[in-house]
């Protein structure tokens, strides 16, 4: 019995030793690189420059039924449980006065296609689908082509 206890104790001491060795050697990126680049764990990567958002709708749609890109700045626009800045301009109630496009009726439909009196919860978080237009490099190269009906060349 005593021997067994000693064996268990020394085994756990060994394991703690291994764990400590790893903790003491945190260098490198641990083999983890993200699509946004690689940086050492201890370093904070400098932030990218802000993207430029052109004011006119310059980037055209790539497929039918694509959520239109946002042709304006959205910095500081709160979309949370308490407030939805986007709807302050884009809701049916406010759009006319704000000179903004009103959200289409699909934004009032629920999963069963019933039209609700207010924006559907599944369309509440606008930025899940709409992004500001920017000339951003794709994170992964791809050979995606526009659907035929929208192709100009
Ligand atoms: C201060 C008012 C205002 C706010 C707030 C606002 N927008 Fe807009 N938005 C506009 C106006 C005005 C346009 C029409 C184009 C233009 O003049 O820039 C527009 C255009 C758009 C379009 C393009 C519509 C189309 O038919 O192509 C989308 C998408 C859009 N906004 C999404 C959003 C989202 C998402 C938010 C919140 C993050 C938001 N907007 C907040 C005023 C606003
Ligand atoms: C689940 C994805 C999704 C979410 C979330 C969403 N939209 Fe859309 N939106 C779309 C799609 C798809 C279209 C184009 C087809 C359509 O009108 O349904 C669109 C169209 C629009 C248009 C153009 C309407 C028109 O008549 O041309 C505006 C403006 C807009 N959305 C604003 C918003 C705002 C503001 C929010 C947040 C309150 C929002 N969207 C949330 C998918 C979404």
Structural write-up:
The protein is mostly helical and 153 residues long. The chain has a domain at 48-135: Flavocytochrome C3, Chain A (Flavocytochrome C3, Chain A, domain 2, Orthogonal Bundle). The protein is 21% helix and 0% strand. It has three helices and no strands. The protein has helices spanning 2-23, 85-90, 95-98. Mean pLDDT is 81; it is low at 17-21. The chain binds heme C (2 copies). One heme C (HEC) is lined by residues 65, 67-68, 84, 86-87, 90, 101, 103-104, 106-107, 119, 122-126, 128-130.
Strand segment count:
0
Classify the secondary structure makeup into a structural class: mainly alpha
Portion in beta strands: under 5%
Give the ligands present.
Answer: heme C
Our measurement of the CA-to-CA distance between the termini, rounded to an integer number of angstroms, reads: 83 Å
Radius of gyration, CA atoms, in whole angstroms: 26 Å
GO biological process, one term: anaerobic respiration
Protein name: Periplasmic nitrate reductase, electron transfer subunit
Signal peptide: 1-21
Subcellular location: Periplasm
SSE layout and pairing:
Elements: H1 2-23, H2 85-90, H3 95-98
The structure holds heme C (2 copies).
Write a concise keyword list for the protein shown above:
153 residues; mainly alpha; Flavocytochrome C3, Chain A, domain 2; 21% helix; binds heme C
């Amino acid at each position: 019995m005593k021997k067994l206890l000693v064996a268990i104790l020394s085994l756990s001491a060994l394991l703690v030793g291994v764990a400590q060795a790893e903790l003491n050697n945190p260098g490198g990126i641990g083999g983890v690189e993200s699509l946004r680049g690689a940086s050492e764990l201890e370093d904070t990567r400098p932030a990218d420059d802000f993207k430029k958002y052109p004011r006119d709708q310059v980037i055209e749609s790539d497929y039918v039924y694509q959520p239109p890109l946002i042709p304006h700045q959205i910095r500081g626009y709160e979309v949370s449980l308490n407030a939805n800045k986007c709807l302050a301009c884009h809701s049916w109630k406010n759009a006319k006065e704000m000179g903004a496009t009103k959200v289409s009726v699909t934004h009032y439909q629920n999963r069963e296609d019933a039209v609700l009196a207010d924006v559907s919860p599944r369309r509440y978080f606008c930025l899940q689908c709409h992004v500001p237009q920017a000339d951003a490099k794709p994170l992964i190269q791809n050979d995606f082509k526009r659907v035929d009906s929208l192709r100009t060349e």
